[in-house]
Amino acid sequence: NWNDINNIIDKFDKQELEKLYNFKSKDTRFKYIARGKEGIVYKLGNYAIKIMKTDDSSDNEIVAIKKIINHPEFINFIRFYFVKEIENYTIYCMNLAKDHLRNWYKNTHTDIEWLSMLIQILIGMYQFNILLKMFHNDLKRKNVLYDYHDKIQILNYNINGKIYQLKTKYIFYISDFSHASPENKHVANISDEYFIKHELFRKIFTDVISNELIDDKYSKQYIEDYIFKNTQKSEEYKKYYQEHEQKINNKFKNNKKMIEYVLKKTIISYGIEHDMIDITPFKNKISSPSKQIIDLFSKLDFNNLEECIYESFNLLKKLWFFLFMSR
Prior knowledge:
Blueprint: H1 2-10, H2 14-21, E1 30-36, E2 39-44, E3 47-53, H3 59-69, E4 80-86, E5 89-95, E6 99-100, H4 101-104, H5 111-131, E7 134-135, E8 144-159, E9 162-174, E10 181-182, H6 191-216, H7 220-225, H8 234-251, H9 256-273, H10 280-283, H11 291-299, H12 305-325
Antiparallel strand pairs: 1-2, 2-3, 3-5, 4-5, 6-8, 7-10, 8-9
Helix pairs in contact: 5-12, 6-9, 8-9
């Protein structure tokens, strides 16, 4: 159990944490999962362990996580079991989820499953903003994890005195609070709302398709020889390419493969977003919600999250009703 994980971490000194943080540890109990600019994540037993350096930029994340630990009833946050600060490192023990939202999109889902996922993210946003008095500021598909259950799970929510019940096999968790900020220090961006209204639909297709195009036949030479010569906006495209080539070179100057991969993905994504690349052959490979679901979310007012949740549950009731009547 997580107490055993706690005991393992307690025995670590700064030197061992440094090795884990820099991916140089020979401790085979730690299985690498992912690395971000804020820290590194390992699988340890049946849990996920995140190790990050403690500095001023991590203060808000620690505040957010300590608040979440005190609210285990908040179903749609990744579950934290403990937070430890050792020397200049902070260590979190978290629930080990099945996967993240980007990969969820690779499978076909019913409208009810799409709507269930969107409702859970909305409720997570509501709880983070309204109840914790904080903003996430970095809500994106890689920061939404999920678990799958063979049997239907019943999730009960109390939203400002209104009781909602959600039946689902997928449970989604908002994670990664490294950009979180208190309400009175809200970062001036619209990433949370943008995620729901844009990224969940258009942007995620762009991301999946751009990866497929890279893995399929596109190369730097192909992009220069073909794409730049076969678009009405070739000059705009070239300018974008050159600007980003410099930025990516600066960011990954010691990793040539990463430079090539990120550069190709960036410009292919840009081409898709600006209708410079024909993605018709790839559209059938990616699942998407129906027009009814997309229309609902394009009309929601994210200044009133309670109303968004209410409208979403109303549509869910209609979908369940029609599903029942069609049997």
